[in-house]
Amino acid sequence: MSAPRKRLAILLAGIVTLAVAAPLGATAAAGTDPHRDGGRGLRQVAYFIQWGIYGRSFFVKNVDTSGAAAKLTHVNYAFGGVGPDAAGNIVCQSMDPWADYQRPVGAGESVDGVADEAGAALQGNFGQLRKLKTKYPRLKVLMSLGGWTLSKYFSDAALTTQSRRTLVQSCVDLFIRGNLATPGAAAGVFDGFDLDWEWPGSEGNAGNIIRPEDKANFTLLAAEFRHQLDAYGRQTHGSYELSAFLPAAPAKISAGFDAHRIFDSLDFATLQGYDFHGSWETVTNHQSAIRVPAGEPVPADFSISGAVDAWTAAGAPASKLVLGIPYYGQGWTGLSGGGTGLFQTATGPAPGTFAAGTEDYKALAPLAHNGFQVRRDPQAGHAWLFDGTTFWTFDDPLVVLQKAVYIRTHGLGGAMAWELSGDDAQATLTKTIHFGLTAFR
What we know:
Layout: H1 3-21, E1 43-49, H2 60-65, E2 74-84, E3 90-93, H3 97-102, H4 124-135, E4 140-146, H5 154-157, H6 161-176, E5 192-196, H7 214-236, E6 241-246, H8 250-256, H9 259-262, E7 268-271, H10 304-314, E8 321-326, E9 328-333, E10 348-349, E11 358-360, H11 361-364, E12 373-377, E13 382-386, E14 391-394, H12 397-409, E15 414-418, H13 428-438
Parallel strand pairs: 1-2, 1-15, 2-4, 4-5, 5-6, 6-7, 7-8, 8-15
Antiparallel strand pairs: 2-3, 9-10, 9-11, 9-14, 12-13, 13-14
């Protein structure tokens, strides 16, 4: 590493140390509020995965005890389903009722230390989210609909005026009114929806239904959500938010989204700032660089700045774009070219805990002290680990701090993380992002 880069890394490391060491409830400057939203400040959004309670043993309580909840403005719950009911209508669904609201939560896993009562109408993750909101009243929780594996039927749901109305009515009834097996049991848990249709008008998961009309229909679907959420808010004297998860690839933006119109309905949108490259390719690369690195062998402009520029050029307001940041890395193995490991041919994906080629930040961070060297490109804004054979591209605290600075200097609307269980037990990445978003305001 050159002397200027080393000095920059040392400076950033010192700032990160201050950020993570700050008291959990502290803000970086007098008068700042970690829960500002509604257009008044930067959002800090993170996904909580429904299935994390199983193999990952990551519970809603961990969002609190790690210190993450004190820093977040929004938790997106992944995922609610969109699929056909017995009559063939496309409606909102709970894809895992046991995890969502049926599983009795013991005292040791409970946010407030109190076990669920036997036979209670609301248990599971939803019950714990309600407790988390009681402890952090300004925290918003959105139900994220779809995702990579549950977007098959969005095109059908968005196709007609009636199908849109039917879907949204079912979503509001199930998740906002909280009408589970017991009517009203989950009322007050969710503050709105996150539309995670991957992707309107272009290829996503195998088997997804895709139509040329998806682009126009996404706009209409978002408008229907906005209409019904506002109508319900007038009944309850409350307000409900709507966000969407947006792709980075220019071709997918063009095929599926009318950037001039969709933000009339959205409070904000989270922008995919990761998976630019990964172990599905044969050459090591970055997955989430701010700018295209020098020597990039792939001609396409896959970078954060490229994605932001594409959306703003298409008409999106920068202040409503919330930048996605990965709490995991992409990895390759079988390298033999020496050097830094970047842009080298690999024999395949690196072994991972849950899937080959991917690994959580909390598992990657210790590698820097176990045979791997941390390499970084401060100009491009990315980092990687390399031991001569295995290569991991990942975001560490220095990189996420750079991204927080990028968010502020480019007038973006905040940061989003996929996903909370990937961070370490002290929520190091979440706290660092929060510090970067709020310090010195």
